[in-house]
Amino acid sequence: MIRVLMVGSSPTERGGMATVTNLLLRHGSQVASIRMVPTHREGPAAMRLRLWLTGTAQVVKSLRYADLLHAHVSERGSVVRKGVLVWIAKLFGKPVLLHCHGAEFVDWYQGLPGLAKRLIASTFQQADLVAVLGSSWRTTYIELLGLRRVVSLGNPVELPRTVPSTKPGFRIVFLGRFGARKGSADVLSAVAGLSAPVELVMAGDGEVTETRALAAWLGVDAQIRSWISPGERDALLAGAHVFVLPSKDEGLPMALLEAMGHGLVPVVTPVGSIGEVVRDGENGLLVRPGDVPGLTRALQSLMDDPALLARLGKAARSTVEPFAIENYMRTLGRHWERLVTA
Questions:
Q1: 211: domain CATH number?
Q2: Contact 25/34 with Cβ under 8 angstroms?
Q3: 269 and 246 in contact (C-beta within 8 Å)?
Q4: Exposed end of the chain (fewer CB within 10 Å): N or C?
Q5: How far apart are alpha carbons 245 and 13 in whole angstroms?
Q6: pLDDT tens digits, residue range 19-52?
């Protein structure tokens, strides 16, 4: 069996990258033997530096027993930490898969000085395979970094076995980091413009206090929670109808795939790879980033038309079935095997 040395942020962290990592660790045994070495965790600077150094030392010790290095990377410091490991792995003669999750990577990279850009591009070029979250990201990484070996991998999702055909009430759910990038304020403003009160549940981290204050100021009766566990998330989605995420930029949000898997209708912006999954009027509704009146109209149309809500929700579930973790692991396993046998 292929021996994969996986590196990235600690699986105990929050967010999409940690969710993907946990899914790979739970289901990866069907195709490979995986050892995970964390190189980052949120916290004080001294702790983060210590974890990076100890994690790097563990990678050096473990590479001799591994068949390949699978590194999860986003942007900023993540690129630096994984970049060092890429060069180390190549010194050991090991193939490298760089798994890119960063929604803000392009803007960050384009703002760097020329020397830094060349160093980062050279590091990515050392990877034997770069995996991105969609075909548009594949084109971007090829053109931006001069890469040749890039695949669109998407994101995996654990699907519930069944989805209720009908659900009482009308519940709208937002999952993500509260703040400008995810458009959490736009959600509250849009819901404030609806013709009747609805059940709105928003859960995540970031600007939680500010979001609660804005909801009170707008007169929106919303449940605004801090980060919830996977079990709480699944229970929330099981009884919900609409998933809303009017982001300014994205990769391919795990929360979106999870919500569609539960049959929720996505009302989202076509940024990142979202537009490759959600098709307006077919399996969800698309609005422009920052278009609060458009967001209100989209939500209102689902409130007013139960048949539309049911049709789009059923189509959303069907759309994400190919993203099921079982399919994803088979695809990823084939990529690992090709890297090792090349």
A1: 3.40.50.2000
A2: yes
A3: yes
A4: C
A5: 21
A6: 999 999 999 998 999 999 999 999 999 999 999 9
